[in-house]
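Colleagues,

For the teaching module next term, I've prepared a clean inverse folding example: a structure given as tokens, and then the sequence designed for it. I'd like students to try predicting residues themselves before seeing the answer, so please don't circulate the second half yet.
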């Protein structure tokens, strides 16, 4: 089997242009299955054995990984690597195995970033102006960006794609083009407009209608990495937890909306989620708060 695995790694790096690290990860996953399969059949597996491997065998391998306390995420990746190996065998050597296509990947728990304390968001305003006190327009820009992510629930890419034409006239709502070119309408609070307009007034360049709203120090369109660095500087300056990221600002918007009584369908539209199940992740955070209140306040709750 070593020759087939070596050929697979060469195929990944030379034909598929995968990085050496990625190819090594694929090889590790495939060799993990080979080692298991040798023990499973009680002999050194041949390529003919690989062609005969059935769904029971593949599921046994995944169960074995579970007993070794390997995560669902790791096993899902390993299964993907093994599928890739079998595709390579079919394409380059005519060795088919239909059973691998019957195996479903383990369900990976979807993690949701934590919400930022609203007070910490408020403290960001003063921190921004202290950090950028020598460049008032930079401070105004950074606060306007924070306000669009926190006040409107925008993704970084959505905020940075706004043009001057989009914000001219202080409209009641913004027309946002999100993931998958899905368009949505997002209301804008007066406080958000105040921050945006202050930035526009101080900005030294990029005033053409079709220019992007947010500009770098050199006058170029602001990049996602620049926006991430804005929040990183604030996190370090205010000594906030590592989960304070641009996406956490959007998450804070979502949890605040839920806490204020927004229904899931409305929140789904505001966030631009294609699936309601994605939006429902936010209810887990809110329900934890509700349960905490229940456990401490309900007269029938157990008291210690």
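(Answer key — instructors only)
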């Amino acid at each position: 089997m070593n020759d087939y695995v070596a050929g697979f790694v060469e195929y990944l790096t030379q034909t598929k242009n995968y990085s050496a690290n990625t190819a090594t990860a694929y090889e590790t996953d495939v060799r993990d299955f080979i080692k298991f399969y040798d023990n499973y059949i009680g002999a050194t597996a041949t390529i003919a054995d690989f062609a005969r491997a059935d769904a029971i065998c593949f599921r046994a391998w995944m169960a074995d990984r579970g007993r070794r306390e390997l995560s669902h995420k790791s096993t899902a990746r390993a299964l993907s690597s093994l599928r890739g190996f079998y595709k390579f065998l079919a394409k380059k050597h005519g060795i088919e195995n239909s059973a691998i296509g019957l195996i479903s990947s383990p369900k990976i728990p979807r993690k949701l970033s934590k919400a930022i304390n609203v007070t910490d968001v408020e403290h960001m305003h003063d921190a921004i102006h202290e950090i950028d006190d020598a460049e008032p327009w930079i401070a105004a820009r950074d606060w306007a960006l924070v306000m669009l992510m926190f006040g409107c629930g925008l993704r970084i890419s959505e905020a940075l794609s706004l043009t001057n034409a989009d914000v001219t006239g202080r409209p009641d709502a913004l027309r946002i083009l999100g993931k998958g070119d899905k368009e949505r309408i997002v209301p804008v609070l007066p406080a958000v407009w105040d921050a945006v307009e202050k930035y526009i007034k101080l900005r030294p360049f990029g005033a053409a209608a079709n220019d992007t709203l947010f500009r770098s120090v050199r006058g170029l369109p602001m990049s996602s990495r620049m926006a991430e660095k804005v929040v990183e500087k604030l996190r370090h300056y205010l000594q906030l937890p590592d989960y304070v990221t641009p996406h956490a600002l959007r998450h804070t918007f979502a949890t605040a909306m839920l806490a204020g009584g927004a229904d899931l369908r409305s929140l789904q539209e505001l966030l631009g989620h294609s699936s309601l199940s994605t939006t429902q992740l936010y209810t887990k955070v809110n329900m934890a708060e509700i349960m905490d209140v229940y456990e401490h306040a309900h007269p029938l709750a157990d008291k210690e």
